[in-house]
């Protein structure tokens, strides 16, 4: 996943370096303590410049931002250390502290992410469709920036850099609202990136940082007309809050309660490989499988194999009675699946396992419990595959492939903002084009009706 | 605009006919008095059938619905007469009564609209993009129905038919909520169309009618998870209510405060023709022009001509001081434009007229007052046209063409749901594809990560 600087990139080679002077001239008190109204007005003004920028200008700015981040590594790491110290003092969990922490290598990874974004095609200006009408009017639908995009996320400093870079490349001014636990870090990162923009002759207000308490977030969510789009990036709680409270349009990135269904006509070696991969390859992400449904006609043969393999991989199993019997027979530890299990996105080495009498039952189960992210069938039966792909209502439907492939990087998009589980505007992996809207340009020589 | 049965279609040749028996078996008390929860659950079940229908099945159903409407003309007209009578008794304005009224010719026009929808391509199943990944996975992004779509509109019976037809063609189950002033009419229309679906072996619940007071509407607007999309069709007040109160995703169709800017390098004959056409061709619609901005270097020559032509067409003029002086010199009556005038969508033979010193001022004025629908420049200057099309933030930007061309029919879409002035999902004229979402189908032979 290029564009996500937490993902594995080239090892950081640049570390120390002096604090960038740009960071020193930045006064958070005056630049980021502004309310949403002021930030949005500044962002709107900046967006008037961004809308007309060439790809060359934007890519040069992205490289300048990357260079400035690396040059300011010491300042950034020092600011981050304050956040980390406060987090530890407040009893922040180790996992969250790890996500919050920046060292020289991670700063370099953030810079790399910006350079990766620079290497991607510019979505702005792409002609989506067009024609010449009978009356000679030439019409074309062209991708243009959204304008001002608000991004609300948790205490993950890499998202600050990522969102700023994706915003700039797509011609949007961004208002960033990161978790308050990363306050010092975000100030430092934004100061450096704003300084780099100014040095490039671009408006610093293309990147705004919203501070303040919950009230500031509420102001952002209701800044209809000032902000064109809000993207929440984070856990289910954050997303739910944004979706229900926002009057500004929201792109929802979502939860993955992902199923793998092993059909009567499945190749069982394939089924085993896909199930284990979908569950264990990276259990903490949204495209990891959470439930396994097995057709009863292959259950006797398949369940002992798959339950053993899963258990050997350290997966805790939550079984329905039929799967539980198979587990008992094979001497594999398991819990009885509760109603709640079928709706749980474990994001961990746990899996609910059940036996279904037929494809209809599998489809009904998935309809009831799916979060609309990714669903998979393993089958050699074309009719079953066709029904599954037609009837399952999800962003991605897999036939004989691991659910782990629902990913902007895997799909070849280069960058990924998130995976949309909603149906409006974008569904599935979202990349730069999803940060744009379109405009119809109609050119004539005096046509009237 | 095919798909809008109020628009001009073939003259109705079929009038009388007996009430269709299907209408008589429909009991509104049990079928439409259901709450949103029940209606949505039924619609969801119906949508499971709709998602897999072939185009042939859907087109046959649309023709059956059209035939049934014509066969039930007397029943429909009689039901409508009750609504019209109640409307008149309640003091409904003549224009609204006219929009509410159905006669045999208008029923036939509704039937024609359904047949026109049948003639359009099926958006469902269209492959938007796709590729084969390096690992052999075949991925394709395919258009699929949204699922359950709520449509909220005013007392215009033709929208009931139109929305049902567009919903069916796009594979969606619809929940219709028309203005209560058309209650009897909508019951009759929905009963006939549901009956026709059943006769075709399709689920009647593909078309649901939501009755009840404001509370029912509020329930619909907050039926997140039950309803996939809500489309308001109507005036600014209705749309504003839906947009601010809905937690279900909304596609906003909007207000048009449309400007025509006459540049320094305009051909003035072209400018005259476009201005008069944009203002007077059909002043009541959203793509009609409301404000005229004239570059000062051509004002002395152009204003007398255009103000005379507009006044001759019955347009009431609201002028800034410079345009006012020109009107006075030509002896043309006019009012001084108030601040409010520049933000008013007159939807009538009125126009605000002002003089601007340059293109920058025109762009700034439009930025401040545009509703983001359609904006036009008249110019022979390529650089001015390029700046205007790049910098103006609107669904459609015209160069040397009347603003009246922003229309699904004119663009060749065949049907039009409305014109979106929002930026998410759809912008500009919306047709059948905009009633769909997409799904990624990924086919492999056992690929894992």
TrEMBL record, chains A, B:
UniProt cross-references to CDD domains, sorted A to Z: ALDH_F18-19_ProA-GPR
Chief localization: cytoplasm
PROSITE patterns: PROA (PS01223)
Keywords noted in UniProt: Amino-acid biosynthesis, Cytoplasm, NADP, Oxidoreductase, Proline biosynthesis
UniProt cross-references to InterPro entries, sorted A to Z: Ald_DH/histidinol_DH (IPR016161), Ald_DH_C (IPR016163), Ald_DH_N (IPR016162), Aldehyde_DH_dom (IPR015590), G-glutamylP_reductase_CS (IPR020593), Glu-5-SA_DH (IPR012134), GPR_dom (IPR000965)
GO cellular component: cytoplasm
UniProt keyword Nuclease present: no
Residues in the signal sequence: none
HAMAP family with a match to the protein in the record: ProA
Function: Catalyzes the NADPH-dependent reduction of L-glutamate 5-phosphate into L-glutamate 5-semialdehyde and phosphate. The product spontaneously undergoes cyclization to form 1-pyrroline-5-carboxylate.
Protein name: Gamma-glutamyl phosphate reductase
Organism (species): Knoellia remsis
